[in-house]
């Protein structure tokens, strides 16, 4: 079992909210993300989202991604 905190405003799902603690079984994880300092590890579903942003807006979060 993994435990995390919802750290954004969900745009599609309605059963969670920002700041809520969430527990999930390993087999139910399709993507994952954690931060250490100012670096972002995982979060691969961010990549297709960033290409829809203007370059100036995407540069900052893209620089924090560890791939």
UniProtKB/TrEMBL annotation:
Domain DUF2314, residue spans: 2-59
| Protein name in UniProt | Uncharacterized protein conserved in bacteria (DUF2314)
Recorded source organism is Escherichia coli
């Amino acid at each position: 079992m993994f435990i995390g905190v919802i750290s954004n405003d969900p745009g599609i799902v309605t059963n969670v909210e920002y700041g809520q603690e969430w527990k999930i079984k390993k087999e139910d994880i399709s993507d994952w993300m954690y931060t250490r300092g100012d670096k972002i590890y995982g979060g691969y579903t961010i990549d297709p989202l960033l290409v829809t942003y203007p370059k100036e807006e995407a540069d900052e979060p893209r620089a924090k991604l560890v791939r």
